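Box 3.1 A note on notation
Throughout this textbook, protein chains are presented in two layers. The first layer is the amino acid sequence; the second is a token string describing backbone geometry. Keep the layers aligned when reading.
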Amino acid sequence: MIAVTRDVSPSIARAELTHLERVPIDYERAREQHEEYRALLAQLGCEVIDLPGAAAYPDCVFIEDTAIVLDDLAVITRPGAASRRGEVDVVAEALAPLRPPVHITAPATLDGGDVLVLDDRIYVGRSERTNEEELAQLRQLTGREVIPVDLHGALHLKTAITRVSHDTLLVNRDWVDVAPFAGWTLLDVDPAEPFGANAVVLGGTVIYAFSYPRTRAKLEARGIDVRTVPADELAKAEGGVTCCSLLVR
């Protein structure tokens, strides 16, 4: 497994925000938290590729939004925020030796955080960053079934629902229509932790933010191996643990 990551930008305090109020972000602390995340990926057996950050792109640490990596290709996205579209170039270059690249083109917009790949299906959140035009493009480019999912106030689909085991999804039902996920076991976040639905499943382990202990207890009660990382500084820029890596299997 390869994990492609990107350094925290020194301008992260100017990151795009949609649903959160802007508060000060400690750049050095954000860097330290990101390094802990990278270290955990390595401990879990990943070869970690570190791409340089850029002051011109405050959100660049959230590399997930720039590509969707499938078994046979890499879809290079066209982020919904115009300020982020230049982020894709360095990522596309890094992925090219690993997967043949294909590209989302205008007028479509697509953030990778709105894409949840479950086996042979691709679920796409209808968000402020991802529009309807990309659905047809994604179907044509990938040859896969693409299923739209309605969101209610969440930045991205994976803010509201992510996979945590072979048959279980962690979800905040207040933010997402769960009807498209019929047949999956749904585990609800603790009501006091609405942002707790974001997790990275890696083999038999889930990487999870330290900030949601009640939901973590629910995961562990299901027998799921949970490894936590501090992520509260990056969360101020509306980032989660899925946002900070592209996993290439």
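Helices lie at 27-43, 88-95, 133-142, 157-160, 213-221, 232-235. The CA atoms of residues 36 and 229 lie 7 Å apart.
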